[in-house]
Specification:
298 residues
């Protein structure tokens, strides 16, 4: 009787153990299957597209990169390049756009993307070389790239192209503003430091008035004139020490005013350039640099 009960207990234990092992194996297999499904190229692509639409470009790069190791589609390669462009990694964006230059349905878009990457990288010399090479220039977006080339001349010290060629790239509605920027760039209203210094050497403070610092100019004139008067007055009354003291202060004020006028002209010129760069950048940013939209990517 006891032996029969013991045999039944042992059988029950073995059945329980076998069942437990089978259940663990089933769970592990199911988990492994789910993990494999989550990390599959198809799901990584879906997640990458979701991140791209959510403007999480940095994480989208990782998902697109993983997918492209398995399948290389032009649209995903373009999105991969676009992610780098949109987070300001223009050098990496340019290299990836180049991979779509030939034998791709997105060749024109890639060539435009490459041009934009060079432009916003401020690599203007290479950008202009690219824009002048018809072999690589996009036929579909040639006008946009040439217009961007014209705009690039506002942002460095290169010579501005001929007015007819320059203005022809812009619509009539924008031509007035572009013309204004063009002539501000070509003929900036700068002040010459040598002229400012010379004016202040003739009449103290006149150089600062010339650079627009009227208050400082008047103050400099009054200060230098007053010190000169005190020096002369003390010499006339035989107060030589005070005469020489005020004479030294007059010389110091006079020389400092000449130097300050030259420096004032340089500061004035720097301000002109800074304000010009800021206004030009703001103007073209508000108009997206007249570049086509890319709504088809979203």
């Amino acid at each position: 009787m006891l032996q029969s009960i013991a045999k039944k207990n042992i059988c029950s234990i073995w059945i329980f153990v076998i069942g437990l092992i089978l259940n663990i194996n089933f769970v592990n297999a199911q988990t492994s299957h789910n993990d494999e499904s989550i990390s599959s190229p198809k799901n990584r692509l879906k997640f990458g597209n979701y991140l791209f639409a959510d403007k999480d470009y940095l994480r989208a790069i990782d998902e697109f990169r993983a997918y492209l190791k398995v399948e290389d589609y032009d649209t995903i390669r373009f999105k991969f390049s676009e992610c780098f462009y949109r987070i300001g990694r223009y050098s990496e964006a340019a290299e990836n756009y180049k991979s779509l230059f030939f034998h791709s349905q997105l060749s024109d878009e890639a060539r435009l993307g490459y041009a934009k990457s060079l432009f916003f990288q401020k690599d203007f010399n290479n950008f202009r070389d690219y824009a002048s090479t018809k072999e690589y220039l996009s036929s579909k977006y040639e006008k946009e790239i040439i217009r961007l080339e014209m705009i690039s001349h506002f942002f460095d010290n290169s010579y501005l192209p001929d007015t007819n060629k320059f203005f022809a790239q812009f619509e009539d509605s924008n031509r007035t503003d572009v013309r204004k920027f063009y002539f501000m760039k070509k003929y900036p209203a700068r002040k010459k430091p040598a002229t400012a210094a010379l004016l202040s050497s003739v009449i103290p403070g006149l150089g600062k008035i010339y650079t627009g610092e009227i208050g400082d100019g008047i103050t400099s004139f009054i200060t230098t004139s007053l010190l000169a008067y005190l020096s002369i007055n003390n010499f006339n009354h035989d107060h030589k020490f005070r005469g020489w003291l005020f004479a030294g202060m007059t010389t110091f004020s006079y020389a400092g005013n000449i130097y300050g006028s030259a420096a004032s002209a340089q500061i004035y010129n720097a301000g002109i350039k800074f304000n010009f760069d800021k206004d030009v950048k703001l103007y073209f940013e508000r108009r997206n640099y007249f570049l086509p939209s890319e709504d088809w990517l979203e």
